[in-house]
Amino acid sequence: ALVILSACVDVKDGICTTSCPVDCIYEGERMFYIHPTECIECGMCESICPVDAIRYDDEVPEGEEAYAEMNTAVFLDV
Ligand code: F3S
Q1: How far apart are the CA of 77 and the centre of ligand 1, in A?
Q2: Is residue 6 in some structural domain?
Q3: I need a surface site. Which of 12, 24, 25, 31 has the fewest CB within 10 A?
């Protein structure tokens, strides 16, 4: 899956949601998140985000791991 990282926080441009063919990008309080199993890894959102907040989950930059994990955690029932 792809993941949304810290650059989205308090920016929430939202254009990524229009690029997603399976509507797997969901709005959170301060950022958006990509559903880890609904994502088909097409990469459309990665190229369209104006602040470059989206990466493939195997290409997460150092220091962004916690944000990457949130893309799974927010969808878990606790
Ligand atoms: Fe956030 Fe970029 Fe989407 S700022 S809402 S990941 S277009």
Answers
A1: 24
A2: yes
A3: 12
Q: What is the ipTM of this complex?
A: 0.95
- Distance between CA atoms of residues 43 and 29, nearest Å: 24
CATH code at position 8: 3.30.70.20
Residue 78 lies in a domain: no
- DSSP secondary structure letter of residue 60: P
- Cα 78 to ligand 1 centre (Å): 26
The pLDDT score that the predictor gives to residue 78 is 61
Instruction: Over range 37-65, report the average pLDDT.
Output: 98
In a domain, 31, yes or no: yes
Q: Give how many domains the chain has, as a whole number.
A: 1
What whole-number distance in Å separates Cα of residue 21 and Cα of residue 45? 10
Q: Which pLDDT band holds residue 74 (cuts at 50, 70, 90)?
A: very high
